[in-house]
Amino acid sequence: MAILEILTYPAPVLQAVSEAVDGVDDETRRLMEDMLETMYDAPGVGLAAPQVGVNKRIIVIDIRSEEDNEIIMLANPVIVESDGKFTYEEGCLSLPEFTVEVERKKEVTVKGLDVEGKEVVIDAEDFLAIVLQHEIDHLDGILLVDKVSRLKRDMYRRKVKKGLKAVKKEKSERENI
Ligand SMILES: [Zn+2]
Question: Which of 32, 80, 85, 149 is deepest in the core (most CB within 10 A)?
Fold first, then answer.
C-alpha cells in the first residue's frame, strides 16, 4: 500500500465528472487500498478517487464510530433512495481551512460494488449518510465551495492563491471528508 498525494482546490481533476469503473479488478483494488491508507494518514473519514488525481467513481470511508465501525470501499456508488434532512458543518481534505454548513439527506440507500466486485447495498443515516453524499459529490466534480455564494468562493480562491500551501497539513478540529 502507498500513501498518495491529496490534491487541493482548484486542481481541475477535482472539478471533473469521474467515469464508472468496469468492474473491480486488481488495479481498482490497489487504488482502493492506497486511498484508504491515504485517508487514515491525512487523517480523514472519507476520500474519493479524484482527490488523489484519479477520475474514477471510487470512494472509501471509515467514520470510526463505535456502533458502526465499518470500512466502506465502493466503486460506482449510486444513491438509490433518500429521505429527511440533516445539516452538518463539513470540511474537506481538498479544501484546507474551509468549512460550510450543508443541508443533505438524513438517510440514504447507496448501491455500488465492493472490493470483491460484488453488488452491495448500504443503508446509512446521519453522519455516515453525510459522508456518503459528500464523497459521491466528489465523483461528480462537486465540492463544498460549490455550495456557497460566488463571492465566498472567490474569496477562498484568492486565499488559496496567496499561499495556503504552507498550512496544508495543519490540524483541524473537524472531521475531514
Ligand atoms: Zn471532500
Answer: 32
Q: Note whether residue 47 is domain-resident.
A: yes
Give the model confidence (pLDDT) of 145-174 as tens digits: 999 999 999 999 999 988 765 555 555 556
Q: Is 135 a residue of the active site?
A: yes
Ion ligand 1 residues within 5 Å by Cβ = 92
CATH value at residue 154: 3.90.45.10
Owning domain of residue 134: 12-167
DSSP string, the chain: --PPPPP-TT-GGGGSPPBPPSS--HHHHHHHHHHHHHHHHTT-SEEEGGGGT--BSEEEE----STT---EEEEEEEEEEEES-EEEEEEETTEEEEEEEEEE-SEEEEEEE-TTS-EEEEEEEHHHHHHHHHHHHHHTT--GGGGS-HHHHHHHHHHHHTTGGGGTT---SSPB-
pLDDT of res. 175: 74
The answer to the question of residue 176 being in a domain is no
